[in-house]
Amino acid sequence: MILFGLDRLLADSELRRPLAGKRIALLANPASVTKDLTNALDALAELADIRLTAAFGPQHGIKGDKQDNMVESDNFTDPRLGIPVFSLYGETRRLNETMLDAFDVLLVDLQDLGCRIYTFITTLRYVLEDCATRGKSVWVLDRPNPAGRPIEGLKLKAGWESFVGADLIPMRHGLTMGELARRFAVPLNLDCRIIPMQGWSANDPPCFGWPERAWVNPSPNAANLSMARAYAGTVLLEGTTLSEGRGTTRPLELFGAPDVDARLLLTEMEKLAPDWLLGCRLREIWFEPTFHKHVGKLCHGIQFHVEHPHYDHEKFRPWRLLALVFKAIRRLYPDYPLWREFAYEYEFQRLPIDLINGSPLLRQWVDDPAATPNDLDEIARIDEQEWRHEREEFLLYPA
Description:
Elements: H1 5-11, H2 13-16, E1 23-27, H3 40-45, E2 51-57, E3 76-77, E4 84-87, H4 97-100, E5 105-108, H5 119-133, E6 137-141, E7 152-155, E8 170-172, H6 177-185, E9 191-195, H7 225-234, E10 254-257, H8 262-272, E11 281-287, E12 299-305, H9 318-332, H10 352-357, H11 361-367, H12 373-390
Parallel strand pairs: 1-2, 1-5, 2-4, 5-6, 6-9
Antiparallel strand pairs: 3-4, 7-8, 10-12, 11-12
């Protein structure tokens, strides 16, 4: 039986013993559930030896109700428990003095997607840093990385840190939240404990990282395992004028635009780098977003199918796949206004595509007519190999 960190903490009173007499806070959202789908806050509140004094919510809110990026959540008082619920995506992204005064131990129970840009990673790093300044303890209740162990993408470059990239790691990092916490805690003087999972392996088919367990959206557009697998590539679409499928029922599993010929695009992609198309099935589609980019317009595009039997866990490389999409568009439509210019996660000076990718390197490769897929592959492989060795010391489970 596979038990997540939360399940283990709830089931084992000895594991909870160090929490006795302490004021406990929980950082969580709707995906923070037990194996029987009980919300973590409710489950912890039922334990006589746990004294809950505060709760925290990440981006999209503790209730998971905020649909888009840069939609902030307010602080409020939980009507049933009577404890303050603080937003870490509101007036502040950091734990302020009022928040730090509300607890002795912070439990972190957040479901990641295995992608550097997913902001729960940044929130984890920030709370570890802030708790270290005040001698607070942090316990991370570990959960699976649904994208598994594969590594892919360029590492974020120094100087490009942001709320969507808090560490110099590749786009697809292959670690769990507990393993990331071990890395983030290294330079800190901090009591950081990881409650690891029991029985989890990232390499077991058919789900390769995600056990046969109910999926609860960790954010509104993370609707299923397919999205989690594709996200390390499809998140790049947020920095472009192409629709990433927001306003459809399959966000971040497809893309399109009113002025793109998807059939021509597929043909060009197959010419450029056929190996980058492996591990999934690409299907021509038409869709009309009900909100967000190209709302109300008929878009021609492609959906990425990464469910059985179309998925190969080792061959699927979503970051390269979307890079190839951009390169093919640039070749077919040299003057296409591909790169979106707007405030992305409150960054006003840097292009969103560069912020998302952690440097200008991907954009520069796309826009250089002489640059080939081999050129991008060569620099990405160096970063990927470096990270493969670098992450070894933080692993809690088989690689």
